[in-house]
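Revision sheet: structure tokens.
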Amino acid sequence: MSDKRFYKIATKDEIKPGSGKSVNVGRDTIAIFNFDGEFYALDDLCPHRGAPLCEGFLDAGKVFCPWHCFDFNLKTGESETIPSMRVQAYELKIDGDDIYLLY
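Predicted:
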């Protein structure tokens, strides 16, 4: 049995289209993104040098690291640039204007 549950982490209007926001959940820092009106959640730190992914740019369903442009798929956390480098992707639930993260 899993101890995971949904935590309210933001509202939709806090994350403008094409942008990200960093939130702390437990001991982790999570980046929440709004890409074309859909919301996604990944670990916020790039595994390459620790850049905040919430400050990266969004394109083609990916976030690109603001420091070295490594790409991470918004749905899976996988990188096409270096397949062995990935970040954790998290499940979100939208209820009205509220965004919940399964953690």
